[in-house]
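Entry: Aspartate-semialdehyde dehydrogenase
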Amino acid sequence: MEKLRVGILGGTGMVGQRFISLLDNHPWFEVVTVAASPRSAGKTYEEAVGDRWKMNTPMPESVKKLVVKNVNEVTEVSESVDFVFSAVDMTKDEIKAIEEAYAKTGTPVVSNNSAHRWTPDVPMVVPEINPEHLEAIKAQRERLGTDRGFIVVKPNCSIQSYTPALHALKEYGPKVVVATTYQAISGAGKNFADWPEMVDNVIPYIGGEEEKSEQEPLRIWGKVEDGQIKKADGPLITTQCIRVPVTDGHTAAVFVSFDKKPSKEEMIKAWNEYKGVPQELNLPSAPKQFIKYFEEENRPQTKLDRDYENGMGVCLGRLREDSVYDYKFIGLSHNTVRGAAGGAVLIAELLKAQGYITKK
């Protein structure tokens, strides 16, 4: 099978690097273009990244000698690719503008950025939860005046550790959710060498994160009406988001009450057996088992469990009845794989499987 040609916008940053490493030897996609800021343009990818390679696997040989293009030269970049992943580091308004500019050239954009998460006709997708939101692409293409280009985004990394768990229990009507997330430093694009003040420290604030954690699940559970995505009315979600001294992996402590309270056995069965479209289609990056429940009292743990299903699965544990809410449990997901680049790669695989992304 001839592979689709992929470009990575913002390819030198941490998420861009994660895209590069995940797409190495991908069965459907091949990275042919890396675009970044004007200061990186004209250098080889290896030169542009220099000593800032943050992945724990070596830089793939296939990208080292690619000459980095200027991300602002939209037409030139677009002509070389079938679609792009976006991980650009710009202001929100700049990101909105540049992603729309790429889409208008007929180039699908799968974005890791937050800028378009609330644009009414831009699907924000977790492929196992709301693939039907891709229907909004038709209306978006009409608005942008293109028959081929569009933008699809992935949600915030913090919600992946608990939203899938709640989604698998939708039949029981979750109505109130309290979640505290304990978020890894890679979520800020950093490691301990760049951020020594995080060693032996907890910071009880991550800008903008609590609003995203409370509102984005409601958009994912919303409905497409007249080409616009209308967010769901509930459940009521309240969160606190805390930065902790962990390299990768976001943990959530979750309390939940239901309209129709399930038994513990029903909850664990629903979690372990949950499947979505990616599992049915056997997409290359899809975890075989999306959600795994651990019976051990001291699991899931970031160090032991964040790489479950190559970082694409969600780990749950410590399910107990609660004295205030119905139940409480712990969730864990890999924030830069499922929560960022890996989640976006899975979206692109779904888009290809459903005919939204094709060769130019």
